[in-house]
Batch of 4 targets.
Target 1
Amino acid sequence: MAGLQEPRRVTELSNELTRDIDTADPLGIVRRLCGSDAQLFAGWGGHPGVNDPVILDRLWKLSLKTAALLKENQDQKKNNRIVFSGCGTSGRIAWLCSWTYNRILQKFGHTPCFHYLIAGGDRSLIISNELPEDDPPKGAEDLKKVAEGADHVMFVGITCGLSAPYVAGQIDHSMHQPNMTSVLMGFNPVSLSRNAPIEKWDKTCRQVFLELETLSCTSDSAFIINPIVGPEPITGSSRMKGGSTTAVLLGTVFLTSLQTLLGQPILPSMTLPAREPEETEVVFDHSLSPSLSPMVSLLDCYSQTYQTVYRHSGGVASLLKLAASCICQPSGRLIYLGADTLGALGLVDASEMVPTYGVGLEEFRGFVAGGWEGCGNTEGDLSGYGKTFRVSLSQFESDVLPSLTDQDCVLCLHGSSQRTGPPHLHTIVNKVLASPAKCGLLVMAENGMSCNHLLDKRYETAVLIRLPYYHAFGKECVFAGFALKLVLNAISTGANILKGRVYGNEMINLRLSNDKLFERAIAIIEKWSGANEEDAKFALLRAIYKQDDAANFQYRPISSHITEASSQNMVVPLALLLAGGRSSVSYSSREKAAPVCQRSQGCHINGDRPNPWPLGHYIPIYLTTTRPNTLSL
């Protein structure tokens, strides 16, 4: 009943700054994303943001706790571990951050102690594995395995919407263990965390997270880090602002802890804290505490990196335009090539397209020099799982390079500190430049570094972003990586908008890969068809099972629906047609329909704003012709 529905979580709301993003040209898309990303630092709606004194106090206390655990490893030879965990994007950020922090420890002669977990294991770094995300006991089991033999474990569970059952199971386990510190990171008030029943479990996310919140008031082994940074620019797409905020918060806490341990500044200009506050001291105003200055300075570095990226909005828009000119083609592809952390970020961005926009596995790809070797992932080389997991440059050369056409866009990702990059990358790039593919260059440049060696007139578009900050501890490209994430998110999101996979700021062809996305699909159908919740769900089931009479499927567990739907494309658009009054639809021919959202019809890449026509009460329609009055599946 609509009157009894709870308020929607902030992370599931529509961002008012981007509600017309589907009508924008490439530069307009980037400018709207700039406004949304500003909320990461400015906060949203009167809630505490990342710069709020209450959040800063929690971050500082967590940093002190972390530094103490790291110090015990150094001085007392203890086996303390720090474990980051999450589903989808959160798990991928957990992987990248643990890899980065371990390399910093190794550089200074310390034993790595950072670990990560991702629901579904390492295969989920490339392809979402739906059912483990909704399995709390599996989450607890995975945590027990990684904690085995440790003296103390700091567990950091990341769930942007406070909605992941996998993480809830881990928090439920960790907060009842005497040798564990429990940290929950997300971007909703705890009171709005997900409260839906979970299959084969007797608790909800909200029950677990409220218990942790209560515990955090009295214990130094429980933390909740939940600044409110506003709705995503594409509704519910936590890979964007949620993922970026996660990277900022993890960096702020754990780089500061490493600075304390190592006695080395994160940046040459950053001083060490003058003192540590007493255990009983509570700091609510960072301007009064010299101890907080390195952490505040670090947040300022991230903020300045964000500002620098969007001062290059024109360049980012030019790369977006280049990518969209290929993605909007029938067989177009966008391919990222890079090395080290920057290459891995291309891998991550490409991996997020299937669940978010329902694209094919080959439409967005990422390749990194050296492949899985040296990527710091737990399971090592994943190439044996299939073509999609073959991510080295050698595998690009054998699998993809021979098939490149003028409908493909290859984007080369460089850091200026890499000089010419790995020799193989230079060789591969030259071969790509000689191919029919459209080739772009994106350079994250370190101040004072010449980039002339990277430039080549054969690139159709080349963009250089010179950053005020680049490395952390003189080695890891933390700030360059944050900048690159913002740019890649803009490029891939913009390309999908121009392809017609977004209406307003809603992703209308999401892949139903977990419980949360199943719920989101029902909400989208309700919103755009005018149907009530019950009818919207029934239309969704009809679309999943391809039967007009879906009554037999109504009482199956949601996991059954997800298993059936996770490999299907265009389920939500089909359900929209059904919920909107289309009583007769040819299910067998639905795969032939080309995704075109009416308001972005014609793929306005060159800056021509389309003229939206009145669309009636149901909006996103999959057309087989260009005539607005033709609905055909």
Target 2
Amino acid sequence: MATMRAGVVAPAFVEGGVVKGVSVRRVRIGRSCVWGSTRGFGSSVKLVQGKDGRAKGARADMSGPEGLPIMPPSHRIKAASVSAFQEFQNARANRYTKVKSSIMVLGLSIHTTPVEMREKLAVPEAEWPRAIDELSSQNHIEEAGVLSTCNRFEIYVVAVSWNRGVKEVTEWMSKTSGISVEDLMEHLFILRDQDATQHLFRVASGLDSLVLGEGQILAQVKQVLKVGQEVSGFGRNLTGLYKQAITAGKRVRTETNISAGAVSVSSAAVELAVMKLPPGGVSRVNVAIVGAGKMSKLLVKHLISKGCTRMIIVNRSEQRVLDLQEEFPDAKIVYEPLSEMLRCTGEADLVFTSTSSEVPLFMKENVETLSPASQASGGVRHFIDISVPRNVAACLSDLANTRVYNVDDLKEVVAANKEDRRRKAADAQVIIDDEIQNFEAWRDSLETVPTIKKLRSYAERVRQAELEKCLSKMPEDLTAKQKRSIEDLSRGIVNKLLHGPMQHLRSDGTDSKTVGETIENMHALERMFDLGSEVLVVETKAKAKK
């Protein structure tokens, strides 16, 4: 069956192909094809594309029970029955299966999705913990993380069943955004295991950014890790994944010249303004910036480099503007409170917006009464909105002598030098592949954790049984101190005997050869001590509570 497995590229769909009345949709991200249909998850059909580009016919009907795609055989063990899964949930602290849980990413980015949809899904940083808790509480999801920026919205999860995990995440996305699952599937990309790992590493390295090599995305990935480490639902696997992604991002920027000449979203916005304004650019027009965060700071920096020496910054508080005045003493930066926003806009020819507001700040009825822009901008007022959700309503474009641009319009700026971008990306990919191997080796080393616990559980059960036998043959007048000494002796013997095997079951994952040997040792110990039938104490207690 042509299922989508880890590290294997799914056969390409024929866009718009129809089989049994199902319209197939395809989104290609990197080496992976994302599949879906106009019916959501039910009746998804794969069509294989021949060398001539024509459909060769359906290879597999992926629809299964409950409208879900059929699970790969290697994953069927994970959902054998509802009762088995409930037992599994009760022993959550010691979850393990014969097949590792899948790491998946489901997301939408500027490459595949218009800003109108991305802004509905955007989750502010303050809400990330809530989103993680809600996602990780789903039945088939162990861990969850949210990466939400102006250019992308991505959810990373560790799922015990990848197809049911996909269903739960997409339903959560639909519920929180108000977008139907069918509409989401038109734009959603889904990657799992090594493909998901590679995607995050490319994101952290700036290879998946609209602006190749831009540095802000690495800081955003770091922030996801920082927030996630304070939330229980952001577990060990995602912590390791994000740490390795940050390492990859740092190495790419240090060992290649990918950041040389790279621009940020803010600098691309300034370049767009220069392209749209009459000769003389930003140095001749009246400029206003709404917001004083990191993006606005970069706007100020790049506006000054283009010859703009005076600008008004409208912000809720004054302190950040004072900091900018101190950092850029050669420019005249004027602070205005948010209550003066419309007045300042009426005096400006070029308005940049970069705030965290979840509702538009500029509506048609507010702007249409403003005085016209000056002749320095040709009488046209330009709004460049780099916020997601957007700060400027799209309907402003209907007004005469008003132009509105958002982050999707920045593609025009970065379309040049495609060949140079490809060459730099190829150099970075070598580093990313190396870091993927390191992460996979580390994750493989985690497989020994259940064996370590089972071996200790087995040894403890034997120790307690033999201790009880011993004490039953001892005089009844043994003091508590004597009994404690005998118990300490039994513990000491067990710990000494376990020391060697435990050392051979531990690996930090940095050496693939060492990891391989550790896995071999794990299997050998499981056979020797028949650990396959050993039940952890915590599982026994969980079952006893039913």
Target 3
Amino acid sequence: MGVQGFSTFIKKKTPKVGVIVDLLHESKKKDILIGIDGSSFIFYVANQISKMNSLILFRNYIIEFFKVLKENNIQCCVFVDGFNAYDKVNEHEKRYIQRTELYRKCADQALHDVECKQISHYQFPHPLFSKEFTSILKEINVPVFVSKFEADKDLAQWALDNQSDNLLGIFSNDSDFFFFDTKCYYFPLDQLSFNQNSITMVGYTIDKISNSLSIKKNKLPFLAALIGNDQTKHIRGNKRFGLKNTQERAIYIVNLVKNQNCSDLVLIKEVYFVTPQDIEKIKNSIKNYSLESIIDKDFLIEENSKSKFRKSIISNLNIFNNQRKESEKNLEDVLFSISGHTSRIYNFSKLVYPPQYTTHRHCFEPSNVSFENSILHFTTTLSSHLFGLLVELPDRAITKITEFVTDSSIQLLKLEYVPDYLAYSHHQCFSNQVSFNQRLFDYCKLLNSLSYYYSLSKNNTCLINPITFDFYNFYIITTWNFILSNSLKFSIKIEEWMVDTFIIQSLFLKNEIKIEFPLQNDMFQPLYIGEFFLVTLRWSLDLSDAMALPKYVISNGGNGSIQPGHFFETIYIHPLWRMANLNRKNSSKLLSLQNSKLSITDKLKCLFDQVSNLITPLIINQFTFIKSQLCFQ
């Protein structure tokens, strides 16, 4: 998020502080190197495509963008966020409430407008976009690094470490970059214009900002802390000066600092009612903008890439301090890579903040659904076991989880509970002290899929082969079994044809069958059931990583890779849903569908008649197996 109100203020300031840069024009003069804030870029792309929650459209845009960069010899390095930073807990609570309000509002609108004609139902790309994004970058050989915490400082440090005539700048929408002395441009993504023939941006440098404001460059971090960044704007007693908005506050405090004739402490007290702890928080916030100068001129050649970066690119990334337990470093090897399946690394912040951990969740759900009957409540058993896995055995007596949820009036409620524990922790999983079969048994038990486990293990009489282990079937079967086991309490009656529709669209995606459906309005029911599926899948992926299942499969020669885009796609599910719903209401087809002797092939081709030619024997076989493992209530 960055510094409140400053971005709007500096972009409107006259004379103009930013300069227009044509990236493709610059690339004709010399080789260009850019850094990209991956989390900001995900949001930017999601807001550019016509369906914000479409992974297909998202994927197409990402591939096209990086293709244009490659064709013009523009090298790039992408950084994505890791754990939540503890000093930003208040900011994360604020964002949680804001997002919950938007999700709730959109869900309420969709509930009363089932064709969703008037709404953009997803205000934010769901967390699986992060995994999809890093999967795409790996596929097209773009260097990507996951930071230990938020990526902004690592990206700024990388830019300083790699300063040269070739380094043009940083792409982000985090206004903290106005205050890092990276020796290069900062390009706000909201001022980026992209097509196949042109990439134009507006670039800002700290020197130009300093000159424009008539404030010394070394005072700009102090200015950011006073205006209010993610660490300081929630300080209790923050004086608002009766100003109408954050932009006015930015202007007011810029003038205070520009005309400063007192000590920094006096000026801080002019802006905040502060305690000694607040003073320390402000000091730490200012220090966060400090970057280290690196003298080492050696270069690192990235694997599978011709990109050259100084060795210091890795110096502050992917590395826990030396006192950390070896087990946590093992887990980090999966989390801080693009090999793991986890969609939300911040869920694993329990590793760095024991024994107390605070979390919060939100999803697309109407306000008339009580918490006891909500998706968030249904999936609490999964999150509780995930957090339990992250606790070492000796620490279990003192560990508690604090979770924020909201009631129907968006009031913040605090739930405190002790995690649910298995007989082992992630440590035993990563050191292979727990057998693969045992981990799969416990995982399937949590996802209410024991019958599927017994099918895999032939009633527990044989070892499951990790080389042939199919993660796709594993996730889709266990996720649907979990949903079906909670379906009686769910506010929508989940009928068999609905599940069939979701499975067929997943199999089309898995087998990369492309269908050109006309873009239509979404519908509430598949949206809401789809949210249940996605939320459950996300926790499933995190549990899987904490149990080291991908690590075990890969280390034994199996294929541990998946793509979230192979499970759910909004531009597929809604047309298929309409098709199936219409056909099951057709009197002649209804008689056929009710015929118990009707084969699965004929049933599917009757439900999905417009795409019946795409329902191949392979699709039929995969569908039949998945359905055979589901337990309908």
Target 4
Amino acid sequence: MAAICRCVYQAWTVKPVQLCRMISGKPWWKRKKEEENEKEMEKQNPKETDATPVIVKYLANAIANQGAENWQKQEPSIPSFLTKEELKKQLGELEYDMVARQNRAVLLPDERSTDEIYDAIKEIDGVEIGDVEQNEDNSDYLETLSFESPLQKKRKKKIVPTIVGTPDPSVPLSDVPCGGCGALLHCQDHGIPGYIISEKFKSFSREELRKSLCQRCLMMTHHNLCLDVSVSEYKYHNIIRQIKNDQALVLMVVDLLDIQNSIVRNFIPMIGKNRPLYIIGNKVDLIPRDDTGYLERVKTLLRDSCERAGLNPTGKNIKHICLISAKTGYGMEDLITHLMTHWKMSGDVYLVGNTNSGKSSIFNALIQSDYCRDNARDKLHRATVSIWPGTTLSLLKFPIVTPTSYIIAKRLQRLHELRPIIQQEEELKKQRLEKYGKSKNATLTGYVGITDFKSDEEIKKEMENPMKNLEWAGFKFQASNDEVVDTGTEKVSKAGTFNEKKFLNSKWFFDTPGVIDKRQIINLLTQEELLHILPKGLVRPRVFLMKPGEVMFVSGLARLDYLEGKTVTLFTMHISWVIPVHVVRAEEADDFYVKNIGTETLQVPIGDESRLGKVPSLVGQEFKITGEFDKAAADIQLSSLGWVSILLPSGITGHVRVFTPGRVGCYLRQPPLLPNVKAFKGRRIRGTPEYQLKKLKA
């Protein structure tokens, strides 16, 4: 023990050069020379890999063993014959990959090997190799683990800049869809969905192309930016008309914060008069509770709005209505159970809705659920999810599980076992809500899980041979002293690409492009403005006392004039907490708006005169509302901002003029969605027309 302590003490007290000599017996410059020689030998004699296309192996073995009857025994994985179509396809992909390799060397000269990049960085400022984390584009399935010694200084990682590419209209469109939005990949025009810069598009092999996202999806997913991409109305109608000739179910997604404006207009003529519909009210987690039974009231109002919009012409079109939250998982399991037990395998399922209704989030949640075939789940790309409206540009899909009695029984068993745990969590949330009163404890939440549908015999076989179905993954280990400890196994199984031929008899779930409705002002806003108006959590209604002759500004996108009434009234704003609200006298309103539009006072819209000129001017319309006893008489929807509930004394009529950009998205709703507005009213804030927020209750 004493000898070990002595060795450790000497190792930590000697100089680094002496430590290197103690470990290797050679000075550092000799070791570096040997490493350079080894790298040179590896370049001259590269290691063999198993990346050779099947067609090349097939032809090589056939030529080398011509005349032998059992030549294919040398390569058991090679098929004994290929059809004409398979041969043509394999040769086409081989030619495509060879051209891509040639283009990569010419078009992407900056994509050098990892060793060359490291050497270049070291020449610039002497950074050690261990300071840079290795992450090659062509080895994204390898996990890199970096180790640092206590003596090593932490330095900033050097980022190799990416190139900014150009379009090439001469290159034909590919048949590979983007995994984020479903548009076919190409490099012809950056304004068309599915665009990838030509330098990368022409350099990608078929396999790399199948795993790629278009430039628009990458910008939204990783940088929260959006490119200007347009989809023609004609193309959308052609996609939706496919449903008319198909025996399919349509799931209509409606944003509960903007119900009437998010219902797709003139939809039944496009899909057929007798089409079955499920109405999905999304974002229920954002709706605050005003009284017991408020969810049933929301569901009833949702049905009435859909029927007034013409979605139930026969009286039997609407088969089911449910309230969910794709973000928190609330209600998702009930929706899946209803689809599996009622619709079953009667036909395909189409997800339809306006932009920003949450379709892509629902699609992603269903992929990671029992509704998707388990052997396809890990090979499917997820739909792009972003604050930007219209993230899905074409049809994304996944195969639906076959709901046999065994599968349904296993699923119901899992849900039954999970119920006590969920009930316990709900009780804990209620206790926290009573104690702390925070919004997160009042938010509706749920859980979307995956059932293991394996039989007892299959589980028993896996227990007997646990290594049979494991996928091997390679690891690259690197240490701070530039020594590679282990390069892992050469046989690394990458996640396979999705093959539709394996699911020919399956029914499919489709995510369609979002409809851009001119009644929704979110389609007029920039990224920064969207971040201001879209609520990120439970909406906390704000109550204001309004007198006749006063004007309320809701950011720079809405204005409410209380023209006349016999008494004061309460305006309850169901909008995002960060949206500014200002109350001024009517004679000061115009000057206030001109002075503060485009500034931090009103916040949205943001920018100079050129930006403000792109937003339509505020145009008003008038409403007369008669009060009811002790509850809100009506709601006035302010397009995508939210809505305002108006409470007047019983029998008293109020006259209100409401302004929105271009007079779009503004309508009167009776009865109101949340009539018990006094549940949100706290004490009056002295010297202001605003009331404090009332503590949330279970």
